[in-house]
Amino acid sequence: MPPESGTPVPEKPSKNPKSTRPDKHNRTIITPNNYCNSNFNFHNITKRYSYVSIHPRSCLIIFIIALQISLLTLSYYHPFFLSRRRLNHHISTFSAAADPISADPISAFSASNSRKINFDNSTTTHFYSRPHKSDCELGKFYVYDLPAEFNVDIHKNCDKLSPFGSRCSAFSNNGFGLPAVEINNVIPSSLANTWYWTDQFSSEILFHNRTLTAESAAAYYIPFYAGLEVGKFLWGDKSVKERDAHCEMMLHYIGRLFPYFNQSNGWDHFLVMGRITWDFRRTKDEDWGSKCIHMSSMRNITRLLIERNPWDYLDVGVPYPTGFHPNTDSDVALWQSFVSKRERNSLFCFVGGTRGFFRNDFRGLLLNQCRDSGGSCRVVDCSGTRCANDTAGTTEILETFLDSEFCLQPRGDSFTRRSIFECMIAGSIPVFFWRRSAYLQYKWFLPGEPESYSVFIHRDEVKNGTSIKSVLEKYSKDEVNKMREKVVEFIPKFIYGKPNKGLGTIKDAVDIAVDGVLRRIKKQKVNGFYW
Fold first, then answer.
1. Residue 320: pLDDT over 90
2. Where would I find the H helices in 24-132?
3. DSSP strand E in 150-263: where?
4. What is the mean pLDDT of residues 188-215?
5. 118-139 burial by CB neighbour count: b if 16+ within 10 A, else e?
6. Residues 6 or more apart whose Cβ sits within 8 Å of residue 203
7. What pLDDT score was predicted for residue 260?
8. CA-to-CA separations, 216 to 92, 255, 500, in angstroms, rounded
9. ∠317-302-266 over CA atoms, to 5°?
10. Average pLDDT score over the chain
11. Are residues 369 and 495 in contact, defined by beta-carbon separation less than 8 angstroms?
């Protein structure tokens, strides 16, 4: 590598000791006095041109030219240009068959690079593209190859992700979970291999598994499993330092090692945070969650979350992962046909448990209305662990949604709940009581006209005695069919397809999310990274 302050001095030493100095490698470095020193060999060059004299003014011109050459030489070895050259190398040599996480979790973990964080310029980086290679008008995105400590090792240590027990089964099979063989008697036999017991907090793994090779970047994806990591420290006597540590390390790593982040201050970067936004918005040490989103380096990064803060532009709501993961677009079409033609015997249903610790619990009101509906409402009471994944209760949930025209969707522990998407994937029409449960959350994934696919009844009306059954009975059969058609049409947008495959000709939730991010960043770049 060339010296840091210029080019090597010619072999003949200078008589002026102040005009040269050794660098840390014991190499002689030219200083300004050298260029006008009579012993410097520029005379050999200028001697052939009689119109150039060794005059102080000529020396000054020569010095400026030489300085420019030196700066160009140095810039070639600057980390930014080194990164660009490495980038070009990876573009031409990286194989499309290489998956960030193997289809076999065990082999992926044993083959992963488990290096510790090392702040140098030797870390490998890769480019990836979206599955629809012929439809890249919005550009392609670059995926940081973070150390395994930030993603694969978190997944590998699945037995430590929760204080309530191992999560290894829940996050097996590339994040899909165990096959849901218990529901085979409810669904078409040809779709038996498309349903899994998928955990609602698996979106970080599902997004990371859907990356392929590409040539150039319009955006940068940070595959950091923030949700899985912080989940270990949300309960029990855990310090704020433990809750914040990994996010701080990741931001330090990205900002220190890669030049791309600093070029835009993070405006063209995005990551998936597989929990609700409130798990990352701690403002005081005694409050819940981590402060990851409030860290200074996070302020411009787009965050994909299963629940967003409606007042934060950079929060983007993405669908909760459900258990349906079709292999092909034909599987999707078969499922859409199945739920469209399904005979539904219940007007509406409610799946959920009461929140007895809340005063005037709204879910309790819904359960009471269902039980008093005279057989028009089907109930699955999820008190306790009855509705946990891989239980008989979960099979009953799917069957209930398939048999009901409408499904009641109150808020969950937060404003959203996974049941919204389980309901719609089954072709049932959601009934909302809070606008923040869906309308202000998933704009990229839901129809723009809420009344085209859903019913809204304000919660206060229910508290004041409005009969949900009476409201729903006012919809004609034709109106119900039109709403169901819209729900079924949008089912692909709620699905997370198989790793590196997606849904073929149909865009799934990952494709829709990435398209949205690229479209947003493209617009921001036109405006100089500002809204």
1. yes
2. 32-35, 42-46, 56-76, 79-93, 105-111
3. 219-221
4. 71
5. eeeeebebbbbbbbeeeebebb
6. 227, 272, 274, 304, 306, 318, 320, 321, 496
7. 80
8. 11, 20, 18
9. 175
10. 74
11. no
**Structure-token pair, residue 148:** 């395994």
10 Å CB burial of residue 226 (0-12, 13-18, 19+) is buried
Query: Which pLDDT score is estimated for 23?
Result: 43
Rounded distance between C-alpha atoms, residue 432 and residue 312, angstroms: 22
State the amino acid at position 148 in one-letter form. Answer: A
The pLDDT of 223-250, averaged and rounded, is 88
Closest of 314, 270, 293, 318 to residue 143, by C-alpha: 270
Q: Token match 């309530």: residue?
A: 164
Q: What is the largest CA-CA distance in the chain?
A: 110
Query: Whats the size of the chain, residue-wise?
Result: 531
CA distances 238 to 16, 225, 244, 287, 293, Å, are 65, 19, 11, 12, 19
Question: Encoding tokens for residue 188?
Answer: 């078409």
Provide the token pair at 387: 């509705």
Indicate the pTM of the whole model. Answer: 0.67
CB burial readout 34-55, b (16+ within 10 A) else e: bbbbeebebeeeeeeeeeeeee
The two three-digit tokens of residue 23, written as one number: 């660098």
Q: Is the pLDDT of residue 199 over 70?
A: yes
**Of 38, 42, 37, 49, the residue nearest 65 (C-alpha):** 42
